[in-house]
Amino acid sequence: MKEIPVAAPALDGKEQEYVAEAIRSSWISSSGPFIDRFEREFASLCGTRSAIAVANGTVALHAAALALGLRPGDEVIVPSLTYIATANIVRYAGAQPVFVDVDPKTWCIDPRQLEQRVSSRTKGIIAVHLYGHPADMDPINEIATRYHIWVLEDAAEAHFARYKGRLVGSLSAAATFSFYGNKILTCGEGGAITVNDLALEQRIRMLRGQGMDPERRYFFPIIGYNYRLTNIACAILCAQLERRVQIVSSRKAIFSLYDEQLSDVPGIGHQPVADWAEPAPWLYCITVSHNRYGRTRDELAAILKEGGIDSRPFFVPLHRLPPYENISQHHYDLPETDKLAATGLNLPTYPGLARKDIDRICELIRKSAVPS
Ligand SMILES: *Cc1c(COP(=O)(O)O)cnc(C)c1O
Domain 244-367 class? Predict the structure, then answer.
């Protein structure tokens, strides 16, 4: 039997047709009509002035942070429970990430713990909308305003989620998205930055394009990067955007089925949803209480694997990883992060996942419980 993966792209719209069109037109590099169309449509869907397509979600963060002014020796406050790219880009700029615990009500950076981590070197905060749930942006923005620092949203996992009715991507100075193969929308490898400020947009475009002056070809006032995305990748993204409503609603339907079938399994916990949040349905999350379920998260993952079902443990906290565990004078005690990282599991979530497969996954989880 074929293994059920955790994620799989849905490419059954006009993806092939648009890619063929890009190739026929010979616009295969980093200019072309699909790039312009994608940037226009994505900005409009995020409610921002502009969107800038880039090579992936990691360089989206890097370019945005540089454009916001990040310099060597600076500090940036980030959650420890996130994908490593969020902190790595701070290091790329010669700056230091400073970690903060997550709020059990959102699993995102805890605004109540930000202030104690602000120092004279702090230049910004990266708010990650983890596992599709928006971070609590109002108090985060308020603290940033008070200390004259910027906020960058890492929305790699949260396309079209809403915070108090407002779209993520439009809630701070800049926001970044990923279109990696397991994300809600994909083109294989790709990313985007959404911004409202024209000067910031121009700096990002310059950093993306090797630092070249837009008015003067082959004149480079700054050191930039080749962070461009191709017209072929944007052809795929344009097709994905046409079907974004179906893609999101079929993922939501999968969330509902899991919710129903796993609601009363002892020891299986669920992702919280704040009353102001409309999360994006990325990967379905559960937590496994060893005491109450009778098995650890890793034991359950092994049982699923035996049954031909792939799953994914939550991120290892960044303050527990070799590049970051001894970085500074900070003594990190991040209990919520550690607890979630030890118990959280992502279950298969993608538009092609069949109902009978969800039934089988839930049945296996249910019958593997060893209540005491
Ligand atoms: C996927 C992801 C990224 C990086 O995106 P890539 O496109 O893989 O470079 C950054 N942050 C978070 C939270 C992510 O999940």
Answer: alpha beta
